[in-house]
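Researcher: Let's do a round of design. I'm pasting the structure tokens now; please hold your answer until I've finished.
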């Protein structure tokens, strides 16, 4: 299943990069609009990074929670985008929403499989 995790994580990276390219193409003459569009690209890339990190840390419950929350939030953004343009079935919205839903589900799977207690060698020991 880690292969599936990685596939969807890298698909979100590709989506974020394509979003950045499309943003540049559409808004390169409008810097304020470009800035906001690129912030969406950055958000997608950060959600992807969290999920790709989670794949390599199957016992890290806090990371799984954060990646779950980020994936749910990204799914909400994708659906919100579809609603804002008046076309919920727009491929851009659907692709990002489905990708986010899969990553959220995989994050929940990580949470269910991770041990409840933190191994002693992973505890913070302070300064």
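Researcher: That's everything. Go ahead.
Model: Designed sequence:
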């Amino acid at each position: 299943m880690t292969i599936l995790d990685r596939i969807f994580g890298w698909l979100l990276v590709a989506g974020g990069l394509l979003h950045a390219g499309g943003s540049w193409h559409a808004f390169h003459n409008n810097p304020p609009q470009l800035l906001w569009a690129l912030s969406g690209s950055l958000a997608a890339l950060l959600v992807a990074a969290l999920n790709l990190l989670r794949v390599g840390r199957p016992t890290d419950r806090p990371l799984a929670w954060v990646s779950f929350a980020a994936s749910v939030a990204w799914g909400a953004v994708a659906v919100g985008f579809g609603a804002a343009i008046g076309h919920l079935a727009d491929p851009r919205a659907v692709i990002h929403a489905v990708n986010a839903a899969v990553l959220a589900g995989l994050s929940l799977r990580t949470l269910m499989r991770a041990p409840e207690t933190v191994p002693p060698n992973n505890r913070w020991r302070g300064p």
